[in-house]
Design brief:
single chain, mainly alpha, two-stranded antiparallel sheet, 10 helices, 37% helix, globular, binds 1,2,3,4,5,6-hexahydroxy-cyclohexane, binds fe (ii) ion, inositol oxygenase activity, iron, cytoplasm
């Protein structure tokens, strides 16, 4: 069984911003996943079952693994506050923890286990390469998108001793804005009732401390691997297009890109970039499989992309 996901048809607006769209009529979108016989072009067929035999992002399943995931969200929703995020951003903006290349970081990530993820059963470097290779197959000319996929989860190194050994709830899981009301579409929303921010009248309206349409760049997101990696890329002078940086910063913002919540905080540019995030998300989520990528075989290609868009060594 497969799930049918319509391909997003985006216009030529990206050409202006150094991002080129494919001639999508020429594409067969399958991301390398098994396709049904009658699959038509321009339609992405996503697998229905994850590596554990469940549907993807099923947070209600009665299983040991799911209990761990729920406990993860309890802690995350209680502890992510506006003040906490402010402190984290100040601390990590210093980028004084290490100097290393992007590829070195990919290798480091193998030591990391993500307790929030109900679908992933492989080392993190496999997830990076599986999503990058799947998107590369469908969008061969968007090299920036391949590299974006490769690096989108690198921020998970925050779990390692050298990078502060932050608890899981401060690194992984879905993200959400602070400084305004918590939307009900957040998974395990009920645990927000123990978050101290809920008592602040300033934070507890739909817009909270923000103005409608203020742009997501101005919104304080819960702290984690997304925000950190965006910071690292920007501060080290990456030449990735804005759409790539947008994908990295908001790829865990499922309440927005899956549920359509919080759109009142977006500006026009956010809406343009969201089209790319929707595309990216399918590959991030559905490429998690047991079919492993041969790291040595694809390494030269990704090294060439890293060289194109990043300095040789970055500050982390
Ligand atoms: O559990 C997952 C995590 O593995 C991902 O890296 C993150 O981006 C998701 O949003 C989260 O829910
Ligand atoms: Fe992620
Ligand atoms: Fe991911």
């Amino acid at each position: 069984m497969t799930i049918l996901v319509e391909h997003v048809d985006f216009g030529s607006q990206f050409d202006d911003k150094n991002v080129h769209s494919e001639d999508i009529n020429e594409l067969v979108l399958d991301g390398g996943f098994p396709q049904p016989k009658n699959a038509s072009q321009n339609t992405f067929f996503a697998p229905e079952i994850n590596a554990f035999g469940h549907s993807f992002r099923n947070y209600d399943e009665e299983s040991e693994r799911q209990k761990g995931v729920e406990e993860f969200y309890r802690l995350q929703h209680i502890n992510q506050t506006y003040d906490f995020v402010k402190k984290m951003r100040e601390e990590y903006k210093k980028l004084d923890k290490a100097e290393m290349s992007i590829w070195e970081c990919c290798e480091l990530l193998n030591e990391v286990v993500d307790e929030s993820d109900p679908d992933l059963d492989e080392p993190q470097i496999q997830h990076l390469l599986q999503s990058a290779e799947a998107i590369r197959k469908d969008y061969p000319n968007e090299d920036w998108l391949h590299l974006t996929a490769l690096i989108h989860d690198l921020g998970k190194i925050l779990l390692l001793p050298k990078f502060g050994e932050l608890p899981q709830w401060a690194v992984v899981g879905d993200t959400f804005p602070l400084g305004c009301a918590f939307d009900e579409s957040n998974v395990h929303h009920k645990y927000f009732k123990e978050n101290p921010d809920i008592k602040s009248p300033a934070y507890n309206t739909k817009n909270g401390i923000y103005n409608e349409g203020c742009g997501l760049d101005n919104v304080m997101m819960s702290w984690g691997h997304d925000d950190y990696m965006t910071m690292v890329a920007k501060e080290n002078g990456s030449t990735l297009p804005n759409a790539g940086l947008f994908i990295i910063r908001y790829h865990s913002f499922y309440p927005l890109h899956k549920e359509g919540a919080y759109t009142h905080l977006m500006n026009e540019e956010d809406f343009e970039n969201l089209k790319w995030l929707h595309i990216f998300n399918k590959y991030d989520l559905y490429s998690k499989s047991k079919v492993l990528v041969d790291v040595e075989e694809v390494r030269p290609y990704y090294l060439s992309l890293i060289e194109k868009y990043f300095p040789a060594k970055l500050r982390w």
